[in-house]
From TrEMBL:
Superkingdom of this protein's organism: Eukaryota
The UniProt record lists the keyword Disulfide bond: yes
GO molecular function: cysteine-type peptidase activity
One Pfam family this sequence matches: Peptidase_C1
Signal peptide: 1-16
Protein name, UniProt field: SMB domain-containing protein
Domain SMB: residue ranges: 32-81
Swiss-Prot/TrEMBL GO biological process terms: proteolysis
PROSITE patterns: SMB_2, THIOL_PROTEASE_HIS
Family: Belongs to the peptidase C1 family.
Keywords: Disulfide bond, Signal
């Protein structure tokens, strides 16, 4: 009996609340004098829809009642929350009057009738994916971790705001190596050890799809330092590329060829002069600017006043050619197809795993810096890898870097690799160091572009 009464009570409360949601009122609360009346008083009513509802005690007759929707709250003093059947989600209880419950990148709100409505988006990471990756760890050869930075973000958001390189429309093939293969390639090579102090730090693009600009500026910066033998160690400004390259889309992504052709035609200033803000802003550099007219501080070691310009970009499309280019002139830029599991990479040699592959988890494109290579032995098995630098900060991966399978075009990493040579300034300032002749002026201007002496065909964009 008691049970039945409770069921009935719950049923009528649910009904009352449905009613309440459809007719929010106020009704009894809107009556000017006696809002609620004793016993039966037919005048104690309010218009509702095309009829009347009542605020007298007589209205409260269970199933046959004709009370106004706010009668319980106004006349009986029952707070509206207690009239609802709460919802539960992951053990958390909440009512329609509570804020929606957040579950990773999805939210659930409680409806008046006790049902809940949840969004159902694929998140950048989730417990299921992490569980699968931990199971697969031994077979895939890399470790995953739970990054709090990814938690609460949708996969689509990560693809747009953490990547940001468009797949090239024109495939640049036709590169063939013209030199003889006499160059010796070591089994391990890391540009940061080979050119200490010349390789730029790991950057964090933030929630801005600017890898197309960040990777281009980073490769260009490294090459300025290396090819000037340290005279021009400069961090070039990706923000200028994000904000000033009109044919790309700033934080919504860009094409690598637009970034390289901007560096060739206009050039860029240094980071301090145009700091990265992880957002699109109004371009503040005119193509005709110099470091002086752009109000940048001039470099100490060389007499440069022009912006930093690069020669035409060229592509490298086989493993050996990429290695030779890195060893000879420094880091190169590679496009990479990014799957959902990559975001959770912690350490090891990355390869795309079977975890997280479904139609709604399509890949996005990214661009990174390749700075070296190596190999790892497990028994008789040798695993070759590239050392790459990502642009997600040092908290990600192996201090911001990652290793990825080499020689098998893993995630298309070897399919679109670009490099370019800088116009290094030759005129060195007199630093006034007595007796140090190396610091005196050693040149009078710019060297002819080294691509003319270069063993690769040069691919010109536009
Ligand atoms: C990952 O971290 C989030 C919070 O940042 C936590 O809610 C979740 O349970 C964690 N998952 C695993 C598998 O550790
Ligand atoms: C790369 O291409 C060159 C010719 O351009 C060829 O001699 C070499 O074997 C290739 N290397 C690989 C790893 O495919």
């Amino acid at each position: 009996m008691l049970k039945l009464a409770i069921v009935l009570l719950v049923f009528s409360l649910v009904e009352a609340n449905r009613f309440r949601a459809d007719y929010p009122g106020p009704y009894c609360a809107a009556r000017r004098y006696d809002r609620c009346c004793h016993e039966r008083q037919d005048g104690c009513s309010q218009p509702i829809s095309t009829t009347l509802c009542y605020c007298d005690e007589f209205c409260d007759r269970g199933e046959h009642g004709d009370c106004c929707p706010d009668y319980e709250e106004v006349c009986l003093g029952i707070p509206p929350e207690s009239l609802t059947v709460p919802c539960t989600h992951n053990g958390q209880t909440f009512t329609p009057f509570d804020p929606p419950v957040v579950d990773n990148c999805n939210t659930c709100k409680c409806n008046m009738d006790g049902s809940k409505t949840c969004t159902d988006d694929v998140c950048l990471t989730d417990n299921e994916l992490l569980k699968q990756l931990n199971h697969l760890e031994r077979s895939i050869g890399w470790k995953a971790t739970n990054y709090s930075e990814w938690w609460g973000h949708k996969y689509d958001e990560g693809k747009v705001m953490r990547l940001g390189t468009f797949y090239p429309k024109i495939k640049v093939k036709s590169m063939s190596r013209l030199t003889n293969g006499l160059d010796h390639l070591p089994t391990h090579f890391d540009a940061t050890n080979y050119w200490p102090g010349f390789i730029g730090k790991v950057r964090d693009q933030g929630w801005c799809g600017s890898s197309w600009a960040v990777s281009t500026a980073s490769v260009a910066s490294d090459r300025f330092a290396i090819l000037s033998k340290g005279r021009e160690t400069v961090q070039l400004a990706p923000q200028q590329i994000v904000s000033c390259v009109r044919r790309s889309q700033g934080c919504s992504g860009g094409h690598l060829d637009t970034a390289w052709s901007y560096l060739r035609k206009v050039g860029t200033v240094n980071e301090e002069c145009y700091p990265y803000i992880s957002a699109h802003n109004v371009c503040k550099i005119r193509p005709s600017d110099t470091l002086i007219t752009a109000n940048c501080e001039l470099p100490m070691k060389v007499d440069r006043t022009n912006m930093y310009k690069m020669g035409p970009a060229f592509s490298l499309n086989n493993e050996t050619d990429i290695m030779l280019e890195i060893k000879k002139h420094g880091p190169v830029q590679a496009i990479m197809r990014v799957h959902r599991d990559f975001f959770s990479y912690k350490s090891g040699i990355y390869r795309h795993s079977a975890a997280s592959t479904s139609a709604d988890q399509r890949a996005g494109y990214h661009s990174v810096r390749l700075i070296g290579w190596g190999e790892e032995r497990h028994g008789y098995e040798v695993t070759k890898y590239w050392i790459a630098v990502n642009s997600w900060g040092t908290w990600w991966g192996e201090n911001g870097r990652f290793r990825i399978l080499r020689g098998s075009n893993e995630c298309e990493i070897e399919s679109y690799v670009l490099a370019s040579l800088p116009y290094v300034h030759q005129q060195v300032k007199d630093l006034g160091v007595k007796g140090n002749l190396q610091h005196m002026i050693v040149g009078t201007g710019y060297v002819p572009h080294p691509s003319q002496k270069y063993p690769y065909k040069v691919v010109r964009f536009n």
